[in-house]
Amino acid sequence: MGYKALARKWRPKNFDEVMGQTETVSLLRNALTSERVHHAYLFTGTRGVGKTTMARIFAKALNCEKGVTPNPCGKCFSCQGIDNNNMVDLIEVDAASRTKVEETRELLDNVQYAPTQGRFKIYLIDEIHMFSKHSFNALLKTLEEPPEHVKFLLATTDHEKIPATVLSRCLKLNLKKISNKFLINYIEQVLEGEGIASSREAIKIIAESADGSARDALSLLDRIIVLSDGSIETADVSKLFGIIDKTIIIKIFELIAENNQAEVFKLIRDLAELAPNYELMLDQMLSLLKKIAVFQVTKDASQLSQDEDKIIMLSKKINPELCQLFFEICLLSKRNLIYSVEHNVAFEIMLVRLLNFKSDANNESNSQTQAGSSYSNSSIGDTPSKGMGSSNDEKKINKKDSTSAQAIQCLTWLEIVERLDIGGLPGELVNNAEMTYLKNENISLKIPLKHQHLNKKPYIDSIEKRINKVFGGTFKVAVGLEESTPDVDSPAYQKAATKEENTSKEKERLLNKPQVRDLQNLFDAKLKDIHLREET
Ligand SMILES: [Zn+2]
Question: What is the ipTM of this complex?
């Protein structure tokens, strides 16, 4: 026998083996014990949480030769048949591959016939939300008057796409994401059963990457086992997932805290050669910042498991406000990462932002100290940077102003406009404008001459109002006209450019599809045009 995927080999075979779904299991057990079994169940939940596994165990419980029982024997003809996928009275359907109404009708036409071997004829329909409207109607007719010998077990990752008429005839069971604790136990059990040694840390990484899905956890394990020789080490797993060692994440913040720009970028370029997973790296940075922020409030070092002294040191070098700001910037970068083609570039730009704020904070704390301000306390440990260009007076902005100005300053104009979410002609104005200046709550915009009809005081007033509402401040907006410059930095232009880029990427992808290539070769066909649907 060849290698059997772990997810199949270790699939729970009875209710006792199901993990992390206590409520659903006890509900099904009760139904079986009291023999009050509904005729249709809908299992909902994200991928890999055990929807079809649960349905199959339930099917065994209904058809076990020992009688309807919460503990199917697992040995009889029926139980074995279900375990080996050859029980004729369990009809498994993947709705995603069978969406035509004729197929559904054909399937349901057989509902009236009695089961061949078992007590019940059981229809297990996975990804039921993929059914067409007509297929749902066909199903609904059967659900309205189901024969005594038929049970429907439906499973879906997206119950909102199921018509209310169908939903109302099913008993809905919501399966939860599997907690990390359960996943870790599960992976440990599987590895023990497979006779493979592993470090606890490696298992934790796998569990975290699986994100609540038992199936994902096991397919990740499959991949790692192939690559490892008998034992799974943290380093192997980190390498496979592109996870950067924690000490390096700490080092990045140490260098930022010292405002050591050259070393930060040297470190990042070295890292880039390891092709790290930047999303995970941002997660690690966020997690570290969270630890620093919590320590700054609680001063409780006992909660810091590892790297205690490093975190305490960083909590002194990065003041609480800056820590919050860093967190915001990292979070925003993580969200925007999906729009970026080159993750390393996006990551470097984020570092530039962090460094900018660090040096700003240095300058400010320096000037505040000189001005005898009480805020200097919050920046203990900051090293004053050398060569301050501007006068102290200019830097003496009050604290409230600097906070709202700071929040907005870590955003591009496009990001600001997206947050403003403003419509009508003021919306046109902001979308066609470029930001030329942003400091101390003064914003200067410029728009091309062709849009000069938008340069009206009421529009500007309503933009000011909106900015002040969203970012909380007293911003002043000034708009100027520009004759010659192309408006390449305006949100309208950038959105159009992104759309064009997506379209051309999609075109390239289509042209590379074998089916399309065949068409081209056979009929000398040309791809004329493609349209992307707007996501809503
Ligand atoms: Zn049995």
Answer: 0.99
